[in-house]
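Appendix C: a fully annotated inverse folding record. The material below is reproduced so that readers can follow the format used throughout the book. The structure is listed first as tokens, followed by the designed sequence.
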């Protein structure tokens, strides 16, 4: 059983396993055996707010069709949303100096479609929009290409934050240079800054579970799916990568996180060295 007070939550192994299985079913998140403390910490308040005496009670409650909002609240609580501006730098540098010029050569006035999967609170898609803007400003003759960036995430909470495009000093300090802060943001008051409209304009945010269909998203030139596959089982990773391959245009590019690999979908992609880092080009 589970005992919960404001300061303490204790999980039994059976109820943890039931919750763990259901979370994997609805969100794809594969919790390790040693994550009882993480679960206990993150659902403490939800248990109290919903008068649940055990994690079993909560699991059974969120399984009810009428509890969609509570299900989403649990997913939001259990989703890790660690993110930075221009994370690892090399994907953005490669995009600006290699992929955008290549695209411009064959699509002089075209629109590059980029999918930022698991976009969290918006740092990744806005970073991408800034890179496209910087390339257009610096290109000889003025590049006329544009970008349509589709940003998706499972968590409704972080999507609400991302759509606002307003960040505090702590968020701004995680990977954003002073020059980019001056160029792409306006002060919003009380040590917060807002992404400028011309950068926001290129980004569309949508809620999406990566286990669901990608059909309505269309085809992409580039997919950023970074630092999210590590939370999924091997079988689900392969499934997601296979469907992302289908969502890419011919020779489209996939960027994964620095610690991630193609799992069982290696035959679908060609590995391209970026020096540093790698990208994966659809075969």
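Designed amino acids, in order:
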């Amino acid at each position: 059983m589970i005992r919960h007070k404001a300061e303490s939550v204790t999980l039994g192994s059976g109820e943890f396993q039931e919750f763990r299985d259901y979370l994997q079913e609805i969100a794809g998140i594969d919790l390790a055996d040693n994550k009882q403390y993480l679960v206990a910490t993150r659902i403490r308040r939800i248990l109290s707010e919903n008068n649940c005496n055990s994690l079993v009670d909560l699991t059974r409650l969120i399984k009810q069709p009428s509890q969609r909002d509570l299900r989403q609240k649990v997913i939001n609580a259990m989703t890790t949303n660690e993110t930075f501006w221009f994370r690892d730098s090399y994907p953005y540098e490669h995009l600006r100096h290699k992929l955008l010029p290549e695209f411009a050569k064959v699509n002089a006035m075209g629109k590059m479609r980029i999918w930022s999967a698991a976009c969290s609170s918006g740092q990744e898609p806005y970073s991408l929009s800034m890179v496209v803007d910087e390339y257009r400003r610096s290109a000889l003759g003025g590049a006329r290409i544009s970008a349509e960036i589709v940003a998706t995430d499972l968590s409704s909470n972080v999507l609400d934050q991302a759509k606002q495009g307003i960040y505090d000093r702590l968020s701004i300090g995680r990977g954003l240079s002073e020059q980019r802060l001056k160029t792409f943001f306006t002060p919003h008051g009380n040590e917060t800054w807002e992404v400028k409209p011309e950068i926001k304009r290129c980004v569309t945010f949508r809620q999406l579970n990566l286990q669901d269909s990608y059909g309505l998203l269309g085809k992409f030139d580039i997919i950023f799916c970074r630092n999210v596959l590590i939370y999924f089982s091997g079988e689900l990773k392969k499934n997601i990568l296979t469907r992302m391959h289908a969502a890419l245009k011919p020779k489209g590019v996939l960027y994964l996180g620095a610690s991630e690999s193609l799992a069982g979908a290696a035959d679908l992609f060609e590995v391209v060295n970026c020096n540093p880092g790698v990208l994966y080009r659809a075969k």
